[in-house]
Amino acid sequence: MITPRWLYVLAAATPARFGDPVIVDETLALADFATLEPGDVVGIGIHTANALRGYELGRQARERGAWVIFGGIHATLYPEEAHQLGGAHGVVRGDGDVVWQTVLDDCAGRTVKHVYEAGRIEAEAFAPARWNLLPRDRYMWASVQTVRGCPKHCSFCSVWRTDGQRPRQRGSDAVIRELVDLRRLGFRFVLLADDNFYPVSHRDLELAAAQGNQQRLQQLTAMRQERFELMNALSGLPPDMVFFTQITMEAAEDPEFLAAMRKANIKGALVGIEAVTPQGLKDVYKDFNAAGEDLVERLRVFRAHGVHVLGSFIFGLPSDRPETFEATISVAQRSELAFAQFVMLQPFPGTVDFGRWEKNMQEDDRQIAGVPLTRYWLIPGNQRPKIYSPHPVMSAEEICRRTQLVWDKFYSLKLIWQRAGCVKSWKARAAFLLISKLYRQMYANTGISTDSARVARSARWARWLARPCRRLFAAAPMPQLEVPPARVELGHIA
Ligand code: SF4
Question: What is the 337 CA–ligand 1 centroid distance (Å)?
Fold first, then answer.
């Protein structure tokens, strides 16, 4: 669905003397190493869910005489694992934008380092993606990053630990240039692939003011001003360009920010709702979110400002009870969400939850396929458990079954059609229906279902639905499009 941005960023970071990189996105087609030659460099980016496949590819590439370099969140957390299991010659930890050139030079000079500590680079050094290498007809959404890092500290999320809590925001000119490149190619739907598009809330400003911390207040105010500058610049792009982003729920208390989003044509946002009860929010260190009826009201504010919300919920929290599942559907539907995803709690490496879980598991020597449970990503996919910690009142099977039922009910034709009222024309409603069904099928295929026949069916449906959906997202290329002139500032103050 979405362009894998990092592959194209690293392509841009590859000096011309090394030639054009061959880009492989295995969600489209499996890697084929038939043309690989000794001395070629194979860079493999992994996250926890695809680490095992990445290691398999690394070993294959090394056998053919290539230099193998790993990067990505998982390799940053477990560099030695990539060496031991993935045939790595070198591992990049942190941002690859700048260090990639050095890695390539070292491969050419046969002086590859065991580990490259690339760390967190400043926003001015973020490389733009090389979109001219992108196959035009394979993706629905393009992706551009405007900020890395998130000041929050949710217990299930590794972003604030890997990308840091200090948001690093790109200047609006660099973002606009990339967006113009994408619109020239015929992409009009773009995901702003940020950790958190709303890094400064009113509450943060009030807190800094109450503490008399003038320096912090100035920093936050400047950061907020930059967000408004970016949104102002987005509003100067062709009006058919539509953006989707990820924000925290606090943005609903900020009508000025929501108004700027509307002007910028940011029409959709993923909001991490996680839980519908105060206790559930405490479980995940997210008590800045609203719960109960306040939550319903808060989420409706987005819709009132023209921002359609994809709400994300987590099931399997210690405070969840059987009735939580039905209560969640009710909140999701009454909050006028356009889409929702219901994921099961999983301890991801790099998170607070994982650290706690790993410690609790010290006495537990259970293994699956010879792999300890605390290294579950190395267990073959079809044998991996779905739930990792015993729940106080529900079995793992019950949580899976109830989660599946929530997906089935929320994406039933009747409820989708009710939600389709968020768009006006019949054509748009039909598109909404198609996309809702696609979304549901894709998720059923990514770890929720325990029934392999159902998973296979979902995969077939998702492939079938993706074709017409892709056509709905395509636009005529605009090769002559110019970068819009800088727009007059709004004179915005926080
Ligand atoms: S879940 Fe969202 S708000 Fe929480 S730390 Fe991660 S990126 Fe930030």
Answer: 19
Whole-model pTM?
A: 0.90
Per-residue pLDDT, averaged over 193-218, amounts to 93
Q: Please write the tens of the pLDDT for every residue from 424-471.
A: 888 888 888 888 988 888 776 555 555 666 677 777 777 777 777 788
Residue 274, ligand 1, Cβ within 6 A = no
Q: Is 21 in the pocket of ligand 1 (CB under 6 A)?
A: no
Residue of 73, 145, 153, 159 to test ligand 1 pocket, by largest number of atoms within 8 Å of CB: 159
Q: 195 CB less than 6 Å from ligand 1?
A: yes
Separation of 298 CA from ligand 1 center, angstroms? 18
Kindly provide the b/e burial profile for residues 198-208, where b requires at least 16 CB atoms within 10 angstroms of the residue's own CB.
Answer: bbbbeebbeeb
Residue 199: closest CA among 159, 244, 259, 141 = 159
HSE of 16, CA atoms in CB hemisphere, 13 A: 0
For a mutational test of ligand 1's pocket, the pick from 148, 196, 351, i.e. the residue with the most ligand atoms closer than 8 A to its C-beta, is 196
Dihedral sign computed on CA atoms, order 31, 32, 33, 36: negative
Mean pLDDT of 354-362: 92
Query: Looking at ligand 1, which atom is closest to the CA of residue 246?
Result: 2
pLDDT, tens digit (0-9, with 9 covering 90-100), for 60-74: 999 999 999 999 999
From 328, 331, 120, 159, select the one nearest 246 (Cα to Cα).
159
* Maximum alpha-carbon separation in the chain: 64
Residue nearest to atom 7 of ligand 1 (CA): 195
CB of residue 157 inside a 6 A radius of ligand 1? yes
Ligand 1 center–CA 380 separation, angstroms: 29
Of ligand 1's listed atoms, the one at least distance from the Cα of 160 is 5
| Cα-to-centroid distance, 195 and ligand 1 (Å) | 7
What atom in ligand 1 is closest to the CA of residue 150?
Answer: 8
Write down the pLDDT at residue 494. Answer: 41
